[in-house]
Specification:
There is one protein chain. It is built from five helices and 29 strands. With 483 residues, it is of the alpha/beta class. Among the domains are: 119 residues, no CATH class; 172 residues, no CATH class. The strands form three sheets. The chain has an eight-stranded parallel β-barrel with strand order 13-15-18-21-25-24-19-16. It has a four-stranded antiparallel beta sheet with strand order 1-2-3-29. Strands 22-23 form a two-stranded antiparallel ribbon.
C-alpha cells in the first residue's frame, strides 16, 4: 500500500511540474470538475455516516418503546412521548440539528413504527446545491412477540441496584402460572434461582440477567426489560400520628377481638409452652397502624381478619409471622387502603441487617445496660428464655427483616407493599395458597430454604381490588426489529 501511495505522489508531482501548454490547459479546465467530484464524494460520505447514525438512534428508540410495551399497555400518544424522550436523551454528541421523531402503534398494538428525520450539513454543501439533499430520514419497526393477553404482575422487586432482587434458595418454589415476576435490578444476577428451585409463571423479567443454577423454569425469561416504576409511590396514606390505642400490647392466651387504631411499640400475639392455651384473635375491619414496633405473631396463635390493612411506620415496624401461627387476612375493598393488606409508609425506617449478638433477654439483643451488653439473669440457665419478653426477643434478634416463617400463613389476600424493607420467606410449607390473589411489591424478596409461595390470580373471587399500575401488562415476551 505504501509503494502505491509513493508512486501516486510521484505522478501527481510530475503532473504539477509540467509546463507544456496542453497539459496546463487540460489541468486548468479539469480542475473545477475534479474539485466538484471530490466535494460530492466527501458530501456523500458525510451523508452516509449521518444516515447510519440516525438509523441506529431510530432503531434503538423503536426497541426501547417496544420493551415498554411488554410491561404496560401503551396508547399512541404515549409511544410518541416515549420515542421523543428516548431520542432526545440519546442523540449523538455534537449533532448540530435536532431529530424530528414520530411514533405510532401498528399491527393491532403489537408493533411500533418510529420515523426520524434530521437536517444535515455537509463539508462542501454540494449535496444541497447540486442534489437538493437537505435532510435525511430513517424508519424502524419493532414488534412485540409472545402472548398478547393482558397479564398481571405478582412479584415486583423494585430496587435497581441490588444483586438478586428475587433470590430463590435451594428448593424454593414460586407457583404463579397466571402472572409475571419482575426484577428491576441491573445486576447480572437480578434473579437468582438455585438448585432444585421451581418457577411456574407466565413471564420472568429481569433487567440485568438471570442466574439459573440447575432449577426448573416453566416460564418465559426476558433479560432486557425496561425499569418498572413503583406503581404505588404516590399512593395516599392514612393518618399516622393519632394517639396510641395500645402500647407494647401482648396477647398470649384467650379469645380476643382487636379494633383498628394505632398500636405503638409493637403488637405481640403468640403462645409458648409456658403461656397455656394458644390465643385466637379476630381483627375487626379497618386500618391498623403499627408505629415504632413490630406486629409479631407466633407459636400456635390464630389471627383472622377481613377488610384489614396493616400499616408499618417509624422504626422497628416489622412484619413477623412465625412458627405454626395460623394467618387468614384479607385487605379492605374500599377506602384509602383498598387492596392494601400490609404496607410500609414513606416514614418507615429500615434498621441494621441483623440484631447484634445476645441471648433471649428481656432487652433487645445488643442493648447497652449497666456494665456492658449482657443477658438479664432471669433468662439464663436451664429456665432461660421462658419469659414472654424473652420469647419475643428470641424471635426478633435473628434479623430485622420482614419475615414470613409460619407454615400456616394460608390467606394473605391483597397487596404486600414493602418498598424499602427486605422480605424473607423461610417457611417449609405453602404460603398464601388459600388467597384468591396475593401481590408482592417489595424492595427485595428472599425465598430461603425451600418455601412454596403460591400466587393465585383469581381476581373475580374477591371484592378486594388490585391497586392501579399492576393490572395491565401486555405480557409480550420478546421484541425484535422488522420491516
Amino acid at each position: 500500500m505504501s509503494a502505491k501511495l509513493s508512486r501516486l505522489r510521484r505522478i501527481t508531482a510530475a503532473f504539477l511540474r509540467a509546463r507544456q501548454g496542453t497539459t496546463a490547459t487540460v489541468f486548468a479546465f479539469a480542475m473545477p470538475a475534479l474539485l466538484g467530484i471530490g466535494g460530492i464524494a466527501a458530501d456523500y460520505s458525510s451523508i452516509t455516516t449521518s444516515r447510519n447514525r440516525l438509523q441506529a438512534v431510530v432503531d434503538s428508540a423503536a426497541l426501547a418503546v417496544a420493551r415498554e410495551m411488554t410491561v404496560s399497555t401503551t396508547a399512541s400518544s404515549q409511544v410518541q412521548v416515549l420515542a421523543q424522550q428516548y431520542v432526545a436523551a440519546n442523540i449523538p454528541a455534537n449533532t448540530p440539528y435536532p431529530i424530528s421523531t414520530t411514533a405510532v402503534l401498528t399491527e393491532a398494538g403489537l408493533a411500533v413504527k418510529v420515523d426520524g428525520s434530521q437536517q444535515i450539513v455537509t463539508p462542501f454543501g454540494l449535496a444541497s446545491t447540486v442534489g437538493g439533499i437537505n435532510t435525511i430520514s430513517a424508519t424502524a419497526t419493532a414488534r412485540v412477540t409472545g402472548t398478547s393477553q393482558t397479564q398481571r404482575i405478582c412479584i415486583l422487586a423494585l430496587a435497581d441496584d441490588i444483586k438478586s432482587g428475587l433470590f430463590m434458595h435451594n428448593g424454593a418454589q414460586v407457583l404463579a402460572p397466571e402472572c409475571a415476576l419482575y426484577s428491576n435490578s441491573t445486576d447480572k444476577n437480578a434473579v437468582v434461582i438455585q438448585k432444585s428451585s421451581i418457577i411456574r409463571s407466565s413471564i420472568v423479567c429481569a433487567r440485568g440477567g438471570i442466574s439459573n443454577q440447575a432449577s426448573t423454569l416453566l416460564t418465559t425469561l426476558v433479560t432486557d426489560c425496561p425499569a418498572m416504576k413503583d406503581p404505588l409511590a404516590a399512593k395516599g396514606e392514612p393518618p399516622l400520628t393519632d394517639p396510641c390505642l395500645a402500647k407494647s400490647k401482648i396477647i398470649v392466651t384467650g379469645i380476643v377481638t382487636l379494633n383498628p387504631g394505632t398500636y405503638c411499640n409493637g403488637l405481640f400475639i403468640f403462645s409458648t409452652k409456658f403461656t397455656g392455651t394458644p390465643p385466637v384473635v379476630k381483627m375487626n375491619p379497618g386500618i391498623y397502624v403499627f408505629r415504632d414496633g413490630p406486629i409479631l405473631i407466633g407459636g400456635d396463635a390464630t389471627v383472622t381478619g377481613a377488610g384489614v390493612s396493616l400499616v408499618l411506620t417509624g422504626k422497628n415496624a416489622l412484619l413477623r409471622l412465625h412458627d405454626n401461627a395460623l394467618i387468614q387476612l384479607s385487605a379492605p375493598s374500599t377506602g384509602i387502603a383498598a387492596g392494601m393488606l400490609i404496607w410500609e409508609t414513606k416514614s418507615w425506617q429500615s434498621g441494621l441487617n441483623s440484631w447484634k449478638s445476645g441471648g433471649c433477654g428481656t432487652e433487645m439483643s445488643g442493648t447497652k445496660v449497666k456494665g456492658g451488653t449482657s443477658v438479664p439473669s432471669e433468662d439464663t440457665g436451664a429456665t432461660g428464655c421462658s419469659t414472654v419478653q424473652a420469647y419475643i426477643q428470641k424471635l426478633l434478634k435473628k434479623t430485622n427483616e420482614h419475615q414470613i416463617n409460619s407454615n400456616r400463613a394460608k390467606e394473605l389476600t391483597g397487596t404486600i407493599y414493602l418498598p424499602k424493607g427486605l422480605l424473607l420467606v423461610d417457611s417449609t410449607g405453602p404460603i398464601a395458597d388459600q388467597s384468591p390473589f396475593t401481590i408482592f411489591v417489595v424492595n427485595k424478596l428472599d425465598l430461603y430454604d425451600g418455601p412454596v409461595l403460591t400466587l393465585n390470580a383469581n381476581y373475580t373471587a374477591t371484592t378486594v381490588p388490585v391497586p392501579p399500575g399492576l393490572t395491565a401488562a401486555i405480557g409480550g415476551s420478546q421484541v425484535r426489529l422488522g420491516q
